[in-house]
Amino acid sequence: MITKLVTLAGALLTTASAVTQDDFYRREVIPLPEDSVCELGSIALLPDKKIAFSTRRGEIWIGSGVYEEDLSKVTWTRFAYGLESSFGMFWKDDSLYVTTRTDLSRLQDRDGDGEADRFEIVSQDWGFNGNYHQFAFGSEPDRNGDVWVALCQLGGGEKWRGWAVKVSPDGTTTPVACGVRSPGGMGFNSKGDTFYTDNQGTWNGTSSLRHIKPRSFLGFPTGLNYYDLIPDLDAPTLPNSPSRFTEEMKRIPELYPPSVLLPHGRMGASPTFVVSDEKGALGPFAGSLFVGEQSHSQVQRTFVEEVNGVYQGAAWHFLEGFESGLVPGKLAEDGTLFVGGTNRGWGSRGTRGFTLERVRWNGKVPFETSQMRALPDGFELTFTEPVDPATASDPASYEMAAWTYIYQSSYGSPEVDQSVPKVEKATVSADGLRVTLKVKGLVEGHLHQLNSSGVRSESGQPLWHPVGYYTLNQIPEAPAPPVKPVAERKPPKDWVRLPWPEKKEILTGLFAPSEPEKALIAQALPTKPQVKVEKPAKVLLFWQCQYPHTSIATGNHALQEMAKSSGAYEVTLSDDPADFRSERLQEFDVVIFNNTTSYDVTIGAEGQEALMDYLLAGGGIVGIHAASDSCRSWPEGVQIMGGIFNCHPWSPKGTWAFKLESPEHPLNAAFGGKGFWHQDEIYLYRKGTFSRDLSRVLVSLDMSHEENRSSPKLYQQHIDLIEDDGDYPVSWLHTHGKGRVFYTNFGHNASTFWDPEVLRQILGGIQYAAGDLEAEAMPSAKLESPAPCACAAPHE
């Protein structure tokens, strides 16, 4: 072990001496106003190549010439004074917006003399008791125009202290997330998500870069009392101390981990600004977040990614040698990075009391690890230059260590729970820019240090910064083998003749929706009921059938998930005919038949009688697609669905035009008053089984379109049944006794169950059947209504 450590130290020394920062970046000190204590708190970029900075003593200065080669010609004008300390500033619409410890204000120079003469408070909806710790770090506007503010909790528990809030352009202040301790800066990544830095201390074992996930708990519990001001959000459980963050996340669902841990001492001690470089202005690091460091007078580089919905990523050293401790930073359009600093009694490696500097990349590419991504069994490294295959594929070129920190109410934490993951295999990509590491001993929730000092570039250069630190909040799941869509899977031969238990196994196994299909359903689900309910309706979802449809399992999944997403109903899934007994049916408000061909045969004579009694007494029924392929031997049952399947002239492979009848009807609200196109199999019903004298038609085929008229001609056995101007209903509703029925022909294709408009109509149908949604059920033949809303032409 001693030999290994000495060898590694030698490699580090070799790396450090190989190249210097000056080989790639030019750092320059910008002259500041004389006779002023310019301890910078924020920087703003202004038009006409000007910048502004604020000081902790409440002054704001505007400077010209800061972009020019000759910095001796920089000039400054004091724009404002007498403010509180500012840690956030931006220019918008001829105004300077300033986030101070007490408020967000708008400053204007109306008479053009170079000094602010109008001071307007946009928001002061947070508390302040005068304690110097009570900083407020503000962002620039996000994509919605909102300004985010991270409020330091130290020094007192005034309103919203310990929270991140956002301020809309009209001044409305909204709490976003609790758990902020001592922020140092804010910014956005390329997706527009908000990040801030937080400093080591109580409940923070080490400093970190954190994503502000709305409605989450970020870990510092002192601000939890302000949940009382948010009616629709309950306070999380208090964390235990001492503990581990990963353990407390199991107890506290709202607890959200730091995205990038910055190991105390190794990566500085006090992180500050957050700057996103979306275009690679600072080198081949497009998409990176750069983080200021006050104590070590540095700029760090980070890479973040989302894994299982959680941000995590890596950090490396980047730039150093600044004159003071860095606090604000801004990246200009031309690629100039402006940074400001102050020691303010805190101390820093930079010895000046304050500074303003600029950094520019000279275009030369340093050999670096630009990205580090987590894999199920290791990491993928991306390099700025092609690697030498011999060194990069040698596992001995890499050394790893892993640890975590105590999550506790005491200050900080040592590095604990150490382990030594091992790189077992390194595979170089064909272009030499990526290396895949297979690692034994990954630990979820741990910080993983990777030292790649043995790797060389194709030209023989060592890495400029060989050590990176990856925060492994989540180990990615191994990708599942490719799964065919439900529609492309082939059932066993003659499976329709199998007994139900064997059909059931095939439907729930072979024809279960894939994860991508479940994701499509999740995106399409309604997020609220069509009408609010005092309590969810009780729904029996029945799915045993004689002839099986391969979309049944997908439909079951969608209907169950829609119950959760909308809150309109609760589902009991059943394939048991014994549920069709009077005393059992009385437990439910609605019975859904999902593609239940010949359900009358399945439930038997006793079930038929119980179902009819249930409907006549006021129960609700919803039929989906093949629910109408039933009741051939039970004439009375025809009245339940309102029609019996005859044939399907419109193929499931076709996309058909549909028109709305009564576009303003509540159950047509999903379609926005317009006809539409949809791919599915469409039925023709037996003559004499469907009647507009009994049912209110909602959607029907639009026979003005050639596609709808020509398709049946492909089915010679159907050609005599179809009329070009015929009446072909698709979905309808009616009453029977005191009961309510909604039926839709849609549902043969699995893809129907991730069509958001169709799902919303089905949800409306369920709420109608349950009696929660009032909807006109007067039969279509008795209406005096406007003409149906025709479907738009193809590609219009």
UniProtKB/TrEMBL annotation:
Residues 77-305 form the DUF7133 domain. Residues 538-769 form the ThuA-like domain. This is ThuA-like domain-containing protein. PANTHER family: LARGE, MULTIFUNCTIONAL SECRETED PROTEIN (PTHR33546:SF1), LARGE, MULTIFUNCTIONAL SECRETED PROTEIN-RELATED (PTHR33546). SUPFAM superfamilies: Calcium-dependent phosphotriesterase, Class I glutamine amidotransferase-like.
